[in-house]
């Protein structure tokens, strides 16, 4: 297909196509979709096309699960801060060493055991702080938005259906939309050696690949900060033995 033919089929100018070929500019999601349609790309080709342009595929298909090189470099450079990367359905995809030392049971899990929403709403019930309640609510808010973007993902649909059946709390939050995304939250991690560690939890969206980075930190000088330091120090000592 010639440049002018592609431009006409996609509804853009030939000069615009030329600029894209030369690496200048970044097409919008709408233009990207038009180009993919004009080129008659398959679904896998379209998803790869979106990844190259830094966009999330439009409303059909599965939740993306590809962790790009930039995100992996982020994990490496924040090696002393527990951080993990999740897909838009809140399933664990990647993590750094500090996070593995803190949450080793999640790393060893498989299937739904690696899904943070499933673990948050089907684990042991215990009194939650207000910030921990907000953390749960933020998961549901984000998961609802994900379900709208990816209605064709059967795994996600089944997850939401089963969560609504397994947890009255999840079902209530799902019925009553409240925008609580990306507010200050806390989580409590049960570590086999250090006991319960309550940490501040910051959730960041990585737009390329529609990913979530979850970062755990503790207030300097606090008891939980000391427990977190103890976990990291013990793990390093074990590596030296």
Description:
The chain is an alpha+beta fold and 241 residues long. It is 51% helix and 14% strand. The chain has twelve helices and five strands. The protein has a five-stranded antiparallel β-sheet. β3 and β4 (195-206) form a beta hairpin.
The gross shape turns out to be elongated
Tally of individual domains:
2
Give the spatial strand order of the biggest sheet: 2-1-5-4-3
Question: What gyration radius follows from the Cα positions, in whole Å?
Answer: 21 Å
Determine the mean pLDDT: 84
Structural class: alpha+beta
Low-confidence stretches: none
CATH architecture of the largest domain: 2-Layer Sandwich
Helix content: 40-55%
SSE string, helix = H, strand = E?
HHHHHEEHHHHHHEEEH
Which fold name corresponds to the CATH topology of the largest domain? Beta-Lactamase
Topology diagram in text:
Layout: H1 3-10, H2 14-21, H3 29-39, H4 43-53, H5 69-77, E1 83-86, E2 92-95, H6 97-102, H7 104-108, H8 116-122, H9 130-149, H10 154-166, H11 168-175, E3 185-191, E4 195-206, E5 211-217, H12 223-240
Concise summary:
51% of the residues lie in helices and 14% in strands. The chain has 241 residues and is of the alpha+beta class.
How would you describe this structure in keywords?
single chain; 241 residues; alpha+beta; Beta-Lactamase; 2 domains; 51% helix; 14% strand; elongated
């Amino acid at each position: 297909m010639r440049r002018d033919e592609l431009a006409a089929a996609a509804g853009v100018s030939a000069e615009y196509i030329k600029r894209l070929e030369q690496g200048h500019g970044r097409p919008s999601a709408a233009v990207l979709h038009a180009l993919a349609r004009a080129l008659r790309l398959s679904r896998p080709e379209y998803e790869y096309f979106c990844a190259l342009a830094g966009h999330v595929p439009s409303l059909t298909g599965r939740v993306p699960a590809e962790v790009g090189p930039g995100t992996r470099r982020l994990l490496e450079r924040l090696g002393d801060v527990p951080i993990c990367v999740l897909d838009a359905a809140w399933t664990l995809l990647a993590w750094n060493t500090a996070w593995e030392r803190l949450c080793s049971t999640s790393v060893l899990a498989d299937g739904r055991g690696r899904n943070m929403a499933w673990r948050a709403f089907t684990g042991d019930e215990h009194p939650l702080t207000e910030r921990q309640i907000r953390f749960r609510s933020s998961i549901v808010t984000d998961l609802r938005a994900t379900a709208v973007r990816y209605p064709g993902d059967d795994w996600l649909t089944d997850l939401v259906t089963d969560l609504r059946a397994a947890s009255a709390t999840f079902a209530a939050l799902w019925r009553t939309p409240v925008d609580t995304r990306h507010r200050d939250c806390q989580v409590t991690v049960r570590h086999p050696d250090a006991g319960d560690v309550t940490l501040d939890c910051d959730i960041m969206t990585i737009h390329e690949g529609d990913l979530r980075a979850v970062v755990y930190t503790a207030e300097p000088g606090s008891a939980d900060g000391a427990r977190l330091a103890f976990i990291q120090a013990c793990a390093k000592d074990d590596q030296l033995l």
